[in-house]
Amino acid sequence: MALSVHPSIGIARLGNANTDNFVLNPIKIGGLPYEHDADLKPTTTVVNFKDEAGCIRRQGQVFKVFDTSDEELTLDSPNVKNIEWTVHLANKKAAWCEFRELNGNLLYGQYNSYTNRGVPWRNASKESSSERQSLIIDLGPRVVSGILSTVEISIYNIPATYLHPSYPSGELKQGSKHFKSLGTLRTDRQGRLIVLGGYGFAGGNTDLSGYGGGDDWYDDISDGSVTCFVTYSDDSSETTTAWMVVGSPDFAPEIVNISTLSDTCFDVGVRNFDLVPDMYDSATGNYESDYVANFDRVV
């Protein structure tokens, strides 16, 4: 059978509260995150996004695996022997391009790429491939399985078989002083995966140059791959994958974007592929419907 992981792209959120004081992701768009019980099962929606000390609670993403009949597979499934999850998160900010507002946003077309807009690399003085690689926070993959298991993505447990770990070492002069972790992997009572992101680390050795950070600054925002390996009772096995994104805290998850991905796709179809010719004709313009409304908004 072919397996699939839900969600295919998961979202977790940073927080600096105690490792065990976290919440679980909202189940629907515009929903609140959830508290959890001792089995890490969602219970009631969150009231407090912070702990008693005012620290922000991390938000974990729950991953589930399904078969072709849309039946969830867990460690309680009679035909499942084991579910193993491998997660590989990394942060490439210091090795990427400088922050330049909308420059690099390809929604504006290929002409607006980083290269075409001349956006320089962060830490441009480091030019060789090995120097650029050293700017990436990459602690290697972590594997978790079983019931109520916990694995930290830490500098202290980098797999011996992983040959290219890199992270900011030593004490940084500005912001957070010591980098230690990109997050935590956990499993619930049924073997589902919960990915928790970092702890809000951000630091460097120079003053910040602006909103987008500065050279040699690091943070523990991350993304990376999620792999699920299911072993069945007859010792056959299957693998499927997903993606994980760790973002900043969101204190108003009920406020959603004005436009959805569906809106954007429909707009592209209408404007570029004659999806609804009566609505929009790319060859001609109508003064009343295409221009007057915009003029009125400006006035």
SSE layout:
Layout: E1 4-6, E2 9-13, E3 22-24, E4 34-36, E5 42-45, E6 58-66, E7 72-73, E8 80-91, H1 129-134, E9 137-138, E10 142-145, E11 150-154, E12 174-175, E13 181-187, E14 193-196, E15 202-204, E16 218-219, E17 222-232, E18 237-247, H2 261-272, H3 287-298
Parallel strand pairs: 2-18, 3-6
Antiparallel strand pairs: 1-6, 4-5, 6-7, 6-14, 8-9, 8-10, 8-17, 11-13, 12-15, 13-14, 15-16, 17-18
Supply the key terms.
299 residues; 2 domains; 10% helix; globular; LodA_N; L-Lysine epsilon oxidase N-terminal domain-containing protein
Task: Provide an overview of this structure.
With 299 residues, the protein is mostly beta strands. It folds into two domains: 4-92 and 136-249, no CATH class; 257-298, no CATH class. The chain contains three helices and 18 strands. Strands 1, 3, 6, 7, 11, 13 and 14 form a seven-stranded mixed sheet that branches. Strands 2, 8, 9, 10, 17 and 18 form a six-stranded mixed sheet that branches. The longest helix has 12 residues, at 261-272. The N and C termini lie far apart (60 Å).
Gist of the model:
With 299 residues, the chain is mainly β.
Task: Give the strand content.
Answer: 25-35%
How many E strands?
18
For the terminal residues, how far apart are their CA atoms?
60 Å
Number of helices, counting only DSSP H or I runs of 4 residues or more: 3
SSE order:
EEEEEEEEHEEEEEEEEEEHH
Total tally of structural domains: 2
Shape: globular
Largest sheet: 7 strands, mixed
Which regions are unreliable across 5 or more consecutive residues at pLDDT < 50?
A: none
Assign the structural class, choosing from mainly alpha, mainly beta, alpha/beta, alpha+beta, or little secondary structure: mainly beta
Helix content: 10-25%
What's the Cα radius of gyration?
Answer: 23 Å
Overall mean confidence score, pLDDT: 92
Protein name: L-Lysine epsilon oxidase N-terminal domain-containing protein
Pfam family, one: LodA_N
InterPro entries: LodA_N
Domain L-Lysine epsilon oxidase N-terminal: 6-246
